[in-house]
Amino acid sequence: MRNVTSSFVLVAVVSFCLLSLSSCQVAQLVINGTTYYETEITTKDNQIIAGQIGGQRSSNLPSGAKTISIKTEEGRMKVKSEQIKFMRLSRKSHPERQQVLVYTDYRVPYTKKGEQKFRTFKNWQILKSVGDNLLITAYGQTYSLSKDGTLVITYDTSVGIQYCLQRKWDETPIHIGRNTAGRSYMRKQWQAYLADDPVLCEKIKSKEIDAFNLDAIAEQYNPKR
Asked: Mean of the per-residue pLDDT values for the chain?
């Protein structure tokens, strides 16, 4: 079994880069395929590969991409996504706005014969919100950078942007909802998965904290109190 605490801390460190440099722009947008993004890949064996991605068929990075093609000074390289710890993206004109993506397993719950089970998938996700005990990730169909370096999530309006949560002891993020879901549904989801913090659940139930105020939920979740 993986070291869950180490995994959580790694993602928290990565999220610090994301949250301190730039907020995410959530939009339905497609960028033409002539744009290159400055890229720095950190592999799981701590190698660093710097170069550019994009500029081929599309500058959009699919969330399900199993391989990253990166143009380096030595030539084009292909790196398997599962070998990457995390990846930074930025615009050449805005190096200060580095966006960080993580290739991670996540679980989608379902019920079979009255018992909750999970299907496991893997894709590129962003850190949406982070707290001491809870991470909230998000993913869509593709990712790109706007001209000012802001991260853009492209998504199908019938599906929306998907959200996952990862508590400190969870091995992987767990799918919990989407931005197109109703607030009533999301309140029930939070109360079900964060039931070990009744104070926060009551705030969500009473609407003191909005069901889509992900930052407040991540920051205030404290199962120890």
From this structure: 86
